[in-house]
Amino acid sequence: MVGDIQAFFRDLSGSGINLTIFYDAFDFGRFVTGLGYTLLLIALSGFFSILIGAMGAAVLSLGRGPAASVIRGYVALFRNTPLIVQMYFFYFAIGSIMPVMRNEIGLAQPLIGGLAWAVISLSLYAGAFNVETFRAGIGAVHRSYEEAALALGYTPRQVFVSVTAPLALRFSFASLANNLVDLTKATTVAYAVGVTELLYVSNQIWSDSLNTIEMMNVILVIYLVLTGLVVFLINRVEAAMRLPGFGAGGAP
Amino acid sequence: MSVSPSSAPLIALRGVRKSFGHLEVLRGIDMDIRKGEVVAIIGPSGSGKSTILRTINGLTPINEGSIRVGDIEVGDPKLDKVKLRHRVGMVFQQYNLFPHRTVLQNVAMAPIQVLKEPREQVEERARRLLAEMRLPDKADAYPGELSGGQQQRVAIARALCMEPEVILFDEVTAALDPEMVKEVLSAVRKVAEDGVTCILVTHEMGFAREAADHIYFTDRGVIVEHAPPQTFFTEASDPRTKEFLSKVL
């Protein structure tokens, strides 16, 4: 089976379509490594960006004063500057003043490497957008639900946790899917700080095998599949949390 | 009016004033409501009826005057809101059930989370209340699956599950189809018969006449007159009251 596939693509390369990743074990290995790192970036940054977004929106809706100002400043900074500049800033500016360790064979090894900086940078970037997404979701929850909870003796904090947040989440899915699709595509920027994700390994492959056009197509298809998967997952979660007679699923 | 100690009012409003911006909604409201009484507040739209209710449980803070519920001073900056809202429940025009919680959870969640009562005890009480509201088989449904009248009866059960002394009913039938009004009004009547003090803002004149012990008529932020229903509906003295009654009766 595998042999057949390899033979097919080896033959195909004779006709000018050279997809080395499907018949060359070394290129295949590199490609799988890249895919693995891309998936890792999506999973970790996606998780942390949602966490940051939720906490930021909670602070904005519950708190006044300094904490809210810090969040607003963070959102302004990370939403309104280019991602690659932010990542360079973390990797080269902050990374250069971080302590450097020695690994087991005595080579210099930074405490926080390219992958970690990429996750931090992507999480903060996507987190800024998620703050706004969840804030909009909270704004969409009708005040009457909160009043009903207040009238039952709930404190504003309890109202937020028990009533506002669960309803706001349901209003946030469409916009959240947007942000996570954007994050999926943005993981390619990690290439710039040396993370061997999909674009990085593809560049290596086409440099060695001179199959730039083929690999470009492969990358486009892979990202279409990845973003499709992200949207599929969010839609599944949204469907599982749909409430009868509430929101997009039924009459308000 | 002579007030004997035994009939000292449970709720007393004195000179209550409230403005939203430069719009003065309440312009000096005085009310005395005794324990177990059923009081109906009627009047034209925008006369401040709902605002009066919302000041009594502290949802709307007042600018001037005082509100006392039992021994609780509602305007007190150190007010224990849990204590006040334990004693004073509220039912809203739009039901305001929590759409992400089942009917049983809606009814039981506040006593469990706010009053810290044991779950089993609260759920047993909630099921009994749902049965009294003739909704025993709806415990596991979501509010969105119920009719308006059913939702409003759940909302009444939710208020009752806190075991309050007073329930504020804010135009609880105004959003309902006519055939559902009756079922909700009979639920309200049951609450009143069980001895819970009821303050209703309502447009149901027939219900007010028959169920209320006392009727307050408000217009433009003041109480124009108040009387027992028999006298109110037949011997209204103020021209504004007469005009209003001529329109609604």
From TrEMBL, chain A:
The keyword Chloroplast is annotated on this UniProt entry: no
Similarity remark: Belongs to the binding-protein-dependent transport system permease family. HisMQ subfamily.
CDD domains xrefs: TM_PBP2
Species per Swiss-Prot/TrEMBL record: Ancylobacter vacuolatus
Gene3D superfamilies: MetI-like
UniProt feature coiled coil, ranges: none
Annotated keywords: Amino-acid transport, Cell membrane, Membrane, Transmembrane, Transmembrane helix, Transport
Membrane topology: Multi-pass membrane protein
Transmembrane segments: 37-62, 83-101, 107-128, 215-234
The keyword Methyltransferase belongs to this UniProt entry's keyword annotation: no
Record domain ABC transmembrane type-1: where: 35-231
Secretion signal span: none
Family matches, as InterPro entries: AA_ABC_transptr_permease_3TM, ArtM/GltK/GlnP/TcyL/YhdX-like, MetI-like, MetI-like_sf
PROSITE patterns reported in the protein's UniProt record: ABC_TM1
Highest taxon of the lineage: Bacteria
Name recorded for this polypeptide: Polar amino acid transport system permease protein
Cell compartments where the protein resides: Cell inner membrane; Cell membrane
TrEMBL record, chain B:
UniProtKB keywords: ATP-binding, Nucleotide-binding, Transport
Record bears the keyword Cell wall biogenesis/degradation: no
Coiled coil: none
Pfam families the UniProt entry points to: ABC_tran
Entry-linked InterPro entries: AAA+_ATPase, ABC_ATPase_HisP-typ, ABC_transporter-like_ATP-bd, ABC_transporter-like_CS, MetN_ABC_transporter-like, P-loop_NTPase
Highest taxon listed in the record's lineage: Bacteria
GO molecular function: ATP binding
Residue span(s) of domain ABC transporter: 11-245
Family: Belongs to the ABC transporter superfamily.
Descriptive protein name: Polar amino acid transport system ATP-binding protein
